[in-house]
Amino acid sequence: MLAASRYYYKAQLIGWSVYILIATIFLITSGNEITFNIIGGIYLVFVLGLIFSHLYRLAIIKLGWLDKDIFSLIPRIAAACIALAILFQVVYISVGNLAFSWNLKLKLNEPNTLTWGMLFFIWSLIYFSYIFFQRFRQEAIKNLKLESAKNEYELRRLKDQMNPHFIFNAMNTIRALIDEDPKKAKMAVTQLSNVLRSSLQTGKHDLIPISKELEIVHDYLEIEKVRYEERLQVSYHVEDKAKNVLIPPLMLQTIVENCIKHGISKLPNGGQISIASHLNGESCDIEIINSGQFIPNAETETSLGLENTRNRLSLSFGKEAWLTIGNSDQSHVKTTIHLPLIAQS
After folding, report:
1. CA 142 – CA 170 distance, rounded (Å)
2. Distances in Å between the alpha carbon of 87 and those of 43, 49, 160?
3. CA distance 250 to 70
4. Domain that holds residue 82
5. C-beta of residue 311 within 8 angstroms of C-beta of residue 248
6. Does a structural domain hold residue 274?
């Protein structure tokens, strides 16, 4: 409020000073004789203009005109400008006669009265335009903050949904090993501990480098390799430059989880998972290829992992990021994540 008042007073001084400057230049170029009374009259307009326009502003605020729509404001502003012009002419002539001995008769139909009305109309136009612009700007900022808070909440919600889902799958893997091979189960618990520690550390951030995400993926796949043994083969083909690209935490892990759940686990002989990443101009493409076949249906297409991934990409990057999934051939499924390059903060 203090800042707004400061800007208002500056605008008042500058605006009426511009009028004085224009009036002075017009007086000089018109060839009229410049006298003390004429100069005094110009500066009298400056003083009275400041006083009248300020009182006008106080009346606008007091009468609640700032809350009116433009159609109801037009007649009010017109009536106010006429009233101000008449009152200004009365005070201008009265003060001028007393201060500068003008000996002028008060005539409301003089051209000066129209001039004062135009001045107050221009002042009203500038003032209300500024107020409406400021309100529009504040509303836009408010909407952006609300949208940002909504997106942040949605990201947190999706992340909270995903973490229990991941832990549930990992615990199922370990449970299956307890009776079958206690030694491997113990090793899997250690790997799960590593995964949980990494996920807790990275979960505090909205975006992490691909290199950090790959550490989680590696630990998770080590858990699965304990269960699937030779039935699961993993390979990595990630460019060094691509390792610094930012990605939402646990996104790759979610895709890899789907590769095992909907691909490897359904194949008697198991299969392979290949993770590759490379830069493509101002973007980065991550490709995950797994053995299996993609059959679009309600179960796979709307699964929690893929749905969350698409939502998180949209919330984090907007339309600049996307995910596609389909069969690369008759025995392999290819998932592609397209990401924009964002500098680390």
Report:
1. 42
2. 18, 12, 68
3. 52
4. 2-142
5. no
6. yes
